[in-house]
Target: 2,5-diamino-6-(ribosylamino)-4(3H)-pyrimidinone 5'-phosphate reductase
Amino acid sequence: MDVVVNAAMSVDGKLSTRRREQLKISGEADFDRVDRLRAAADAVMVGVGTVLADDPHLTLDDDDRRVHRLRNGRPGNPARVVADSRARTPADARILDDAAETHLLVTDAATESRREALAGAGEHVHVHPVDTDDSGHVDLTAGLAALESAGIDRLMVEGGGELLSSLFRAGLVDELSVYVGSLVVGGRDAPTLVDGDGFVEGFPRLDLRDVERLDDGVVLWYDAV
Ligand SMILES: NC(=O)C1=CN([C@@H]2O[C@H](COP(=O)(O)OP(=O)(O)OC[C@H]3O[C@@H](n4cnc5c(N)ncnc54)[C@H](OP(=O)(O)O)[C@@H]3O)[C@@H](O)[C@H]2O)C=CC1
Ligand SMILES: Nc1nc(O)c(N)c(N[C@@H]2O[C@H](COP(=O)(O)O)[C@@H](O)[C@H]2O)n1
Model:
């Protein structure tokens, strides 16, 4: 499976403010680039923190891209994936609507009633029980294997910083593109591109492949080493 991470951050590396509210960091051209990346993916993944903060939909904005996928025998929208150990995704979350398939990676910490509540959203919602990692979260190696078994070969991950930290720690990231917007957000409690406990050694290394000026910022393209 190819794991492609994309996010937008401020020049000081923040994904949003200390209030953890969605923040428009990039502009129209970058949103179109993100739409193109989504269209090329089999599924788009976030952590449950992003679902609770932003209530994202994670579908395509551009109808032509949807039509192009359908003509190629693919679902109109990529599937959606949430890493959600305790099945905290609200039953009325936009990510559970029937615009696309949704895969929820949960663990034993999710009660039967929560799992049932999510599965009850419809046949397009798939709840995958997987092992926990050392921190008690979804073991992402096992989770991604479950997604691969469901036919997902190219996974785009949009964040947030806790999920991205675990993906880097597990060595699961193949590519990273990051839009750097020309603003400072600040705040020690504002989420950054990679949160978690951070690294003191064994830093994930990246190869800078390309740089593109877009809207009032830049996109940096990296391959994992
Ligand atoms: N600018 C941008 O491009 C983007 C910005 N954001 C912003 O990021 C913020 C949310 O980020 P954040 O709070 O870090 O939340 P995340 O979206 O990273 O979700 C973190 C949660 O996911 C669950 N989880 C399950 N398995 C794992 C795992 N293996 N590793 C880590 N987490 C796991 C955990 O909850 P549990 O233990 O209950 O399962 C954890 O608390 C919001 O403010 C949002 O607006 C988000 C995406 C893109
Ligand atoms: N690429 C990008 N640029 C920004 O400026 C952003 N604020 C975000 N945020 C993330 O986009 C997702 C929202 O998706 P939908 O539009 O609801 O489909 C969500 O994950 C945000 O955190 N991304």
User: Anything to note?
Assistant: Residues 28-39 form the longest helix (12 residues).
